[in-house]
Task: structure prediction
Amino acid sequence: MVEFFGAQVLAALICIVSAVSYVSKHKEAYLAEQLVVNILYGVQYLLLGAFSGAVSNAISTVKYIVFYINAINKKKNSIWLVILFCLLSIVFGLLTFSNIYSVIPIITSLVFTVAIWQDNPVILRTIVV
Result:
């Protein structure tokens, strides 16, 4: 019961940070805020026993760290990083696959990986919102 209510509190925080991130004007700020969102989601999934989601968020957290570092250093993310993070999402998602709902974090991770790879903020916002 405590885990469930903790997860609900995290969900409220996730909504707030997500809403703020979607109106961020700079990609660096968006990536930093989404990094926080991914960490919160990961903890929430662990509390709920949704291990496929937790693994997906662990990969996404690493992805956001790498993309954030590249953004603040004004480096372009290579297509190989996108392919690597997509493959990691698929492989680890399939390893933790338990039911049809386990596909949702895999697909979400793939979509967000392609979205944050984009340099065009209009495309980024269109994909993630």
